[in-house]
Amino acid sequence: MKRLTVTEKLAQNKYELDDGHPHIVVHNEVCEAECKIRACLFVCPAEVYSEQNGKIVADWAGCLECGTCTVACPPQALHWEYPRGGFGIIYRYG
Ligand code: SF4
What we know:
This protein has one domain (22-90): Alpha-Beta Plaits, CATH 3.30.70.20. It has 4 helices and 6 strands, in the order H-E-E-H-H-E-E-H-E-E. It has helices at residues 6-11, 28-34, 40-43, 68-72, and strands at residues 14-16, 24-26, 49-52, 55-58, 78-80, 88-90. The chain starts with 5 loop residues before the first helix and ends with a strand. The relative contact order is 0.30. Bound molecules: iron/sulfur cluster. This is Ferredoxin-like protein. GO terms for molecular function: iron ion binding; iron-sulfur cluster binding. Residues 54-83 form the 4Fe-4S ferredoxin-type domain. InterPro entries: 4Fe4S_Fe-S-bd, 4Fe4S_Fe_S_CS, ETF-QO/FixX_C, Fd_FixX.
């Protein structure tokens, strides 16, 4: 039996998109006032965050719900909550 790589395992996951109800909201006014390092661009394993025209944008549909960004970002720069019941990531391999 072939062993799957981490990337192959992650590709097996499913995501139920809660369209119109983002579970991540970026408060760019806080980013601009308090954050010089933009850690979210580097710590997220799913590369959810990007910088577009100087603003941080979250493509929340790919979130793995690991919570790393909530630790890395300054207080109140992110509003993050788990997706509503039945939505979000569905792991196939734990
Ligand atoms: Fe990325 Fe994890 Fe934050 Fe989701 S919870 S945006 S996967 S760092």
